[in-house]
Write a structure and sequence with these properties.
The structure holds 2 protein chains of 2 kinds.
Chain A: H1 2-14, H2 16-20, H3 34-46, E1 55-59, E2 67-71, E3 77-81, E4 86-92, E5 95-100, E6 103-108, E7 113-118, E8 123-130, E9 133-139, E10 148-154, E11 160-166, E12 174-176, E13 179-184, E14 188-192, E15 199-204, E16 210-216, E17 219-224, E18 227-229, E19 244-245, H4 272-275, E20 276-279, E21 295-300, E22 303-308, E23 314-319, E24 324-330, E25 333-338, E26 342-347, E27 353-358, E28 365-369, H5 388-396, H6 404-416, H7 420-431, H8 437-447, H9 454-461, H10 476-485, H11 492-499, H12 509-519, H13 525-536, E29 542-543, E30 550-551, H14 558-576, H15 579-590, H16 596-606, H17 611-614, H18 624-633, H19 640-656, E31 667-675, E32 680-686, H20 691-699, E33 710-718
Helix pairs in contact in A: 5-6, 5-7, 6-8, 7-8, 7-9, 9-10, 10-12, 11-12, 12-14, 13-14, 13-15, 14-16, 15-16, 19-20
Chain B: H1 2-9, H2 36-48, H3 51-64, H4 68-81, H5 87-93, H6 99-112, H7 115-124, H8 130-142, H9 149-162, H10 170-182, H11 185-192, H12 204-212, H13 218-229, H14 234-246, H15 255-264
The chains are: A alpha+beta, B mainly alpha.
Chain lengths: ~725, ~270
């Protein structure tokens, strides 16, 4: 009776415009002005929200049916139903609603069916309970399929109070006292009388989408691609900037939208859209629109990345041992339940687990209802607190190729951290051969840009292949580039050691010699001359041990790399060495077995032409001191930034090559040779499936003129948006 | 200089000795290092002359850089000369990028001998190329390098864990061969314990060596015979009968045991 009186009063005071400007959902219905919205805001503020229990609804993996309700945080099993449900269940106060064929059914948490209403052939989009009513929206086929229904029923009996089948698409509703908020058709957020269905107020989005509506504290929020606080400025032509918030971050793993399409009903059970998504909670106790602790959470199967909503910076990373079937944000953190029914709460500050519980049931999907202040504790004391770098390193690791986008994201996040610890983590990724090549390549590329943390690179470079001790050759080429970029002269002995190590891949040798040349340490002249001597005539076959057929045991393709390294060595010796070394270069150039490129380089260097090594600085003397100085100020090769800039123009055509590919890699690695004029030859594309399409494009790229003479370059095409 | 370089290069990778132009003086100008056929001929001639001088000259020529076929011959010549003056080139070629030249260098190192070369050969047991690993393991026994036993056992464990080949691998054969040659009674006792992990075919050579050693106790040899006999395979029977045949008439207390063990093994199709 009281409820009816309140509804009538509301109609009398607020419904005048509805009756005088056409019916609900009418096109001519005017947009709310600031006064209307201020009044609505006041009503919301005055109506205290009902206390909602913390529960988790666990949908089991097929072929099991139904769902189980657990109370949180104690993990107590409250009830279970075993009927087939279609579409993701919805929690509304003390009820769980789901579509069971032909009906929308409401169950209490103990599994008792409380009531059911016909589904009218639609999926359940959302439901909200307040003041003894339950509002339900049906449809769920997307914002372009404008057919659905708006229902209001008695929360206890299910008796119908309002039935509005409409040629409109509905988002999930929100009941606040006697105001029924409904987003519809992507553009509108209307407030209705929940008993009569009269439209009291409509807020139109001019340049964005309204798809959800949610109460948080004293405020109501809406949006779909951004978060809007329902406040008076939404009635203005230009809402206040503070009324809108979104997340500034591209390149999230799996490229999740700001939120899942609120006009589409998700499946019951495993739905990939729930495993890769962005999660956040509006902050209701602050002014304007914003996120709790200014944090959003990117979920990727089993990885959770906490992001600063303003800057997009990663705050922490958490890797769960199993795939996460459900995730819900509270103010102080995020609750997760995994596929094995293990639940945890991660603190918003550092991702530390502050609570754990076992629900003891397999889960394909978990829907949670959590109060804002939900923040359970009770995790074991030894639960680690990981630094950001440690968390990212964990996220970057592993051999599960399904997680590659998250791993690459973690590597990129590490790259953005300008700390020695981050460099160390990148080196760790780079040196773990069991990690996917694509991931290691990304870490390797990142390392070539680092200017600190060279200790880790030096340490990694100190390792050598040893079959007996099961030690692999480190990624010498990438480490060499990184150390050269950082002007780390302490790397010289280790680089020389790898130059003489037969286990160092031939493809890494040019980078090693280039690094030695750039570092310009006079101590490297003699070993470089030794290297040049030993291999300048090393072409052709030789007899096997114990006689027999002549054989050429050089791997196909290695000769090119060795020649490139010898060429670089000749130029370096010419630049760094003295007259004796130049005489040796002359002798080497005279050998009939020497390759053309090596001969040319040796002759040039022997004649004192250090142009290649000193970048045409006008210093043609080749004297040691001046040449070394030049080396630090002008890199001999095309650096990564120049490489990136040169490829920008063909990025689009290269990405076109991925169109209709059966598998779209996160990155494509392109290795090629280039000369001092910047001409690219012999591109090798990995994955090789794109070789035919990409190679001609790459050959058309012109790099800046450089002093390298001949070198091997690498461009990594990232394929994410 | 050569001695100093040897000492340096075997101790760590970072200290691999540079070979700069200073050795040019050891190569006579009339050798014409740019003519491979002429160099080959000069090497052959030098090898017939003073061994010390020849080894030094050939070593210097190799370090100057020659075609691989010439390098292979040069290393072969240094092996024939067996002079320590050739060590410098041998050591350098143990780290050459061509596995075949590393194998030639191992053969030369065995011929020249000496602890520095043995340590360099020991490092090759961890080589990326399996044939080089096997040659190096085998060579350590020939070089009488007892200090390498730990490496040999480690390599044996590693190879047994990594290889699925039922017939064994050259590295297994090389390790067992060298352990049998170098090892103490305890080492050989330990080696016998590998028999069921390692195929008999890859250990027969090692057991033959152990049975032939005078400085191993007869009880250990009897244990070898017993262990092989317990396999009860045709291969074991063949091994035991072969041993009986080789040692027939010699005062070997384990001979009767070998004969009896062989007779107990039932082989499909019979035979003696």
């Amino acid at each position: 009776m009281i409820r009816q009186t309140l509804g009538l009063a509301a109609l009398l005071t607020l419904g005048a415009c509805a009756t005088s400007n056409g019916g609900a959902f009418g096109l001519a219905y005017p947009s709310a002005n600031t006064t209307d919205i201020a009044s609505l805001e006041a009503r919301v503020r005055e109506h205290r929200p009902a206390v909602t229990p913390a529960v988790a609804v666990v949908v089991p993996p097929a072929p099991a049916r139904g769902f189980t309700v657990f109370s949180l945080p104690d993990g107590r099993r409250l009830g279970q139903i075993g009927v087939t449900i279609v579409g993701r269940p919805v929690i509304a106060g003390d009820l769980v609603l789901a579509r069971s064929p032909g009906s929308i059914v409401a169950w209490t948490f103990d599994g008792t069916e409380r009531w059911r209403v016909p589904d009218r052939g639609f999926s359940l989009v959302g439901a909200s309970q307040d003041n003894g009513r339950v509002a339900i929206t049906l449809g769920g086929a997307g914002v372009t399929r404008r057919n659905g229904a708006l229902l209001v029923v008695d929360a206890v009996s299910g008796a119908s109070r309002l039935q509005r089948p409409e040629a409109h698409a509905f988002g999930a509703p929100l009941l606040v006292g006697d105001d029924l908020f409904v987003p519809w058709d992507g553009q509108n957020l209307s407030v209705f009388d929940p008993d009569r269905g009269d439209e009291r107020l409509r807020i139109r989005s001019r340049d964005d989408v309204f798809g959800f509506v949610r109460r948080e504290g004293d405020a109501v929020f809406t949006g779909a691609r951004a978060l809007y606080r329902v406040e008076p400025s939404l009635g203005d032509a230009r809402p206040a900037p503070s009324a809108r918030a979104t997340l500034s971050r591209d390149g999230l793993p799996g490229a999740p939208p700001f939120m899942n399409d609120p006009y589409v009903t998700l499946n019951a059970g495993l739905d990939a859209r729930e495993r890769v998504r962005l999660a956040w909670r509006p902050e209701g106790n602050a002014q304007g629109a914003g996120f709790a602790h200014n944090t959003a959470y990117a979920l990727f199967h089993r990885d959770v990345f906490a992001l600063d909503a303003s800057t997009g910076a990663v705050k922490w990373a958490y890797v769960h041992p199993a795939d996460i079937a459900g995730l819900e944000v509270a103010r102080d953190g995020v609750a997760i339940v995994d596929e094995n029914g293990r639940s945890a709460f991660l603190h918003h500050e550092n991702g530390r687990v502050t609570w754990r519980a076992e629900l003891d049931t397999p889960a394909a999907q978990v829907v949670m209802q959590l109060p804002t202040e939900y923040a359970p504790t009770g995790a074991p004391a030894d639960e680690p607190t990981r630094s950001l770098v440690e968390g990212l390193l964990l996220a970057a690791g592993g051999t599960d190729t399904r997680l590659m986008p998250a791993q690459l994201f973690a590597v990129r996040a590490l790259t953005s951290l300008d700390t020695p610890e981050a460099t160390h983590a990148l080196v760790t990724v780079l040196t773990r051969r069991q990690y996917p090549q694509e991931l290691r390549a990304a870490a390797g590329e990142a390392i070539t840009h680092r200017t600190n943390g060279t200790e880790a690179m030096l340490e990694a470079l100190g390792a050598h292949h040893d079959y007996v001790r099961d030690v692999d050759t480190p990624p010498v080429g990438m480490l060499a580039r990184g150390l050269a970029a950082a002007h780390e002269r302490r790397a010289v002995p280790a680089l020389l050691a790898h130059l003489n190590d037969p286990a160092t891949p031939a493809t890494d040798l040019p980078a090693v010699v280039s690094a030695l040349r750039e570092l310009g340490d006079p101590a490297s002249v003699a070993p470089l001359l030794d290297f040049l001597r030993l291999y300048h005539a090393d072409r052709g076959a030789l007899p096997d041990v114990g006689g027999g057929e002549m054989l050429d045991d050089r791997h196909v393709g290695d000769q090119d790399s060795i020649d490139a390294a010898l060429e670089q060595a000749a130029l370096a010796i010419g630049a760094l060495g003295g007259p004796a070394e130049r005489r040796a270069l002359t002798q080497i150039a005279e050998h009939p077995g020497v390759s053309g490129v090596v001969r040319a380089a040796a002759e040039r260097a022997a004649n004192g032409d250090t142009r290649a090594a000193s970048n045409g600085s006008g210093n043609g003397t080749g004297e040691q001191g001046s040449a070394i100085d030049m080396r630090f100020s002008v890199p001999a090769r095309v650096n990564a930034e120049q490489m990136e800039a040169a490829f920008i123009a063909v990025r689009g055509p290269l990405l076109e090559c991925l169109r209709n590919a059966t598998s779209r890699p996160a990155t494509v690695r392109i290795q090629f040779r280039y000369d001092s004029a910047g001409t690219i030859t012999r591109p090798v594309v990995n994955p090789a499936a794109f070789q035919g399409c990409m190679a001609p494009i790459v050959e058309g790229v012109r790099l800046p003129e450089n002093t390298a003479g001949r070198d091997i370059g690498t461009y990594v095409l990232t394929t994410f948006p | 200089m050569a001695t100093a370089l040897l000492a340096m290069s075997s101790s760590s990778w970072a200290q691999v000795a540079p070979v700069a132009g200073g050795d040019d003086a050891s190569v006579p100008a009339w050798w014409n290092l740019n003519d491979s056929d002429a160099v080959l001929e000069r090497m052959q001639q030098a090898a017939m002359g003073n061994p010390q001088s020849a080894a030094r000259t050939i070593s210097a020529a190799l370090l100057h850089g020659v075609e691989p076929r010439v390098a292979a011959y040069g290393l072969h010549a240094l092996a024939g000369l067996a002079r320590p003056e050739g060590s410098l080139a041998v050591q350098r070629f143990l780290e050459h990028r061509r596995p075949t030249l590393r194998r030639h260098a191992i053969a030369a190192a065995v011929a020249i001998g000496g602890s520095p070369l043995a340590r360099a050969v020991e490092a090759r047991v961890g080589d990326p190329d399996p044939t080089v690993r096997a040659d190096a393991a085998m060579a350590l026994g020939d070089m009488n390098e007892r200090a390498s036993l730990t490496t040999l056992f480690t390599a044996l464990d590693r190879e047994l864990g990594a290889s699925l080949r039922p017939e064994g691998t050259p590295l297994i054969r090389g390790c067992t061969h060298s352990i049998a040659r170098l090892g103490s009674a305890d080492d050989v006792e330990r080696l016998v314990g590998y028999l069921r992990r390692a195929p008999l075919a890859s250990m027969t050579e090692a057991f033959e060596i152990a049975l032939s050693r005078d400085n191993l106790p007869e009880s250990l040899k009897a244990r070898i015979v017993n262990t092989v006999g317990s396999l009860a395979t045709g291969e074991a029977r063949t091994f035991l009968l072969g041993a009986v045949e080789r040692y027939r008439g010699r005062p070997a207390p384990w001979l009767d045991l070998a004969r009896t063990s062989a007779q107990r093994i039932q082989v499909p199709g019979g035979g003696t």
